[in-house]
Design goal:
The complex is a heterodimer of chains A (262) and B (216). With 262 residues, chain A is an alpha+beta fold. Chain A has seven helices and eight strands, in the order αααααααββββββββ. The longest helix of chain A is centred in the middle third of the chain and has 40 residues. Chain B has two domains: 118 residues, Winged helix-like DNA-binding domain superfamily/Winged helix DNA-binding domain (Arc Repressor Mutant, subunit A, Orthogonal Bundle), CATH 1.10.10.10; 90 residues, Rna Polymerase Sigma Factor, Chain: A (Orthogonal Bundle), CATH 1.10.1740.10. The radius of gyration of chain B is 18 Å and the shape is globular. The chains are: A alpha+beta (262), B mainly alpha (216). At the A-B interface, α2, α4 and α5 of A face α3, α4, α5, α6 and α7 of B.
């Protein structure tokens, strides 16, 4: 357990690393609030942490399109914040009204605390609602992709074994497919599964790479299907997570397209 | 011996700030302020400066490219939201971004119940896993400034004893507390605390000339 000021100050580096246990962190924060020197020391260790990020090194680089996705995600955040949200505003108004009513007879301090609590509750509610809306939209799009009358289903599995299985929902109209994997263990470190389209003649055509969750479940939306070629089957192999131009490992799963599908 | 060579290298440059190749470019803090006003381009420029670094940390923590990209997107989205509250008195933009990326990466690992993967870093087979601190220098796509800092970090890390380095890596990349590290390594808690403190102290002294712009 920690003792005097010097003992507490000695924890600055561990605190900056986030390596203190909760009780120790609280004690340290209380001490830091009284010691500008310690606060400065923590800030300096955070600079060290930032430099250590350069020590992560690695042979991997972010995909070039990540920059655009970073900006798009942030922009979406702003648009979401600016979009009209009548139901949420109604909740906000209701919560604010309740707090205001309570505040009439309460002391200023308790009103402020209540307001903070209500605001936090409303924020949590908004976050939860936003998450559920996104989840619902995603599920709706998956359902539409499966139920569309133009969809043909192909099942990919290992001969003679019930699991794992991959289902391909190929929408012939849009010529895109939805890939649904289940009971397929996640690929190893720096590995991924890759989908291949097998034409009647010629080499396999590389398609998307993907991975599954620890539960074995995986879903890939809107996979483009090659056009102008007669496809006879699809296959799955395990490849480096950046994908391969040609299969480098044996086929794990295969599914045959019927004549009408190709 | 590596220790002496690294100290020599650090001492040689200790009085100079690292060279910069963007003297006419906006300061990091300017970009954060522009971002706070809703300027997407400022966010893009910040990504250009720190995206590769944040990705490297995220990848080292989460171990998969797709997850690392998700972490980087979340970290920058958080930076975008919190830009109006950025306090330059508390540290540099780089430190601010790194804290966010590392936190999001550790959150993701915890959420995915992958704590089991946080095995002893020192015992990992580096051929099969993401590289440890300082492996693979310099980071790909780096500029002169980043390369110089990377070399300094590499040299500073080389001065640590293996136990000091292990303790710091387990905290930095695996998010373990000192107690958890002591348990993992079957070492007394006091020993782990001392190793971490002395190791970080050594890094702080060696890396002080290389802090990012705006450091306190």
């Amino acid at each position: 357990m920690t003792g005097g000021p010097q003992d507490l100050r000695d924890l600055a580096a561990a605190y900056a690393l986030g390596a203190l246990d909760p009780a120790e962190a609280r004690a340290f924060e209380a001490f830091m609030a009284t010691s500008p020197e310690t606060a400065r020391e923590v800030a300096e260790y955070r600079e060290v942490n930032a430099l250590l990020a350069l020590g992560a090194g690695g042979a991997t680089t972010p995909a070039p399109e990540l920059r655009a996705r970073v900006v798009a995600r942030a922009t979406a955040t702003r648009e979401a914040a600016l979009a009209p949200r009548a139901p949420r505003l109604a909740w906000l108004a209701l919560a604010a009204s309740l707090v205001a009513l309570a505040g009439v007879s309460a002391a200023w301090f308790s009103s402020r605390r209540a307001l903070a609590g209500a605001t936090a509750a409303v924020t949590a509610l908004q976050d939860s609602l936003r998450g559920r809306e996104q989840q619902l939209a995603l599920r709706e799009s998956e359902l539409n992709a499966i139920l569309d009358p133009n969809v043909l289903l192909t099942r990919m599995g290992e001969p003679g074994t019930p699991r794992p299985v991959i289902q391909l929902f190929w929408n012939r109209k849009s010529n895109r497919l939805l890939l649904h994997a289940f009971q397929l263990a996640p690929a190893g470190q720096r590995r991924a599964y890759q989908l291949w389209f097998l034409p009647r003649t010629g080499a396999p055509i590389a398609s998307v790479t993907f991975n599954t969750e620890p539960s074995g479940h995986g879903l890939v939306h809107a996979v483009p299907v090659p056009e102008g070629v007669e496809l006879t089957a699809a296959a799955i192999t395990e490849e480096p997570d950046s994908g391969s131009a040609q299969p480098t490992t044996p086929v794990l799963l295969v599914g045959t397209f019927s004549r009408a599908e190709s | 011996m590596q220790y002496g060579a690294a100290l020599d290298a650090v001492a040689h440059t200790a009085t100079d700030r690292p060279m910069t190749d963007r003297s006419s470019a906006p300061h990091d803090i300017d970009l954060v302020q522009q971002m706070a006003r809703g300027d997407d381009r400022a966010l893009g420029l910040l990504y250009d400066r720190f995206g590769v670094v944040l990705y490297a940390v995220a990848f080292r923590v989460v171990g998969q490219a797709a997850d690392a990209e998700e972490v980087v997107m979340e970290a920058f989205a958080q930076a975008w939201r919190e830009a109006p509250r950025f306090d330059a008195a508390r540290g540099s933009v780089a430190a601010w971004l790194t804290v966010m990326a590392r936190s999001r990466a550790l959150d993701l690992v915890r959420a995915q119940s992958r704590r089991a993967r946080a095995t002893d870093s020192a015992a990992r087979d580096t051929a099969e896993t993401a590289p440890a601190m300082s492996a693979g220098f310099p980071p790909p796509g780096s500029g002169l400034e980043r390369e110089e800092r990377s070399r300094a970090v590499s040299a500073a890390l080389a001065t640590l004893s293996p136990p000091q380095r292990t303790a710091i890596e387990l905290a930095y990349y695996d998010g373990l507390s000192q107690s958890e590290i002591a348990e993992r390594l079957q070492e007394p808690l006091g020993t782990v605390k001392t190793r971490m403190r002395l190791g970080m102290l050594k890094l702080r002294e060696a890396l002080r000339p290389y802090y990012f712009e705006g450091a306190v």
